[in-house]
Design brief:
Elements lengths: L3 H23 L9 H18 L4 H14 L5 H15 L2
Keywords: Membrane, Transmembrane, Transmembrane helix
């Protein structure tokens, strides 16, 4: 089991990587990316829940979340959050 300090460091690293990933999308962005800041908050919140509950599959979960973000980048944020919730539910079984 990870200590509190390790979990905190992982959270900070994931937030940094998520923000970096989202800002890289802005370079090729059109008007459909206005909601990406809202999506970034959803990603960070959902990844944090996955860290706390599914620590053994941390790398797999991060890769999956980033892949879903890439696929759903032009979709509405509500559809995206449903995808993340589905991923979280699937991995917590």
């Amino acid at each position: 089991m990870l200590g509190q300090n390790s979990v905190h460091k992982l959270k900070l690293e994931i937030k940094r990587r998520t923000r970096s990933f989202i800002s890289s999308l802005h370079y090729n962005a059109g008007p459909e990316y206005y909601f990406s800041k809202q999506i970034s908050r959803i990603v960070i919140l959902q990844i944090t829940i996955v860290i706390l509950i599914c620590r053994n599959t941390l790398i797999y979960n991060i890769i999956s979340v980033r892949t879903i973000f890439r696929e759903q980048s032009k979709a509405k944020s509500t559809q995206f959050s449903c995808q993340i919730r589905h991923l979280y539910a699937k991995n917590s079984q």
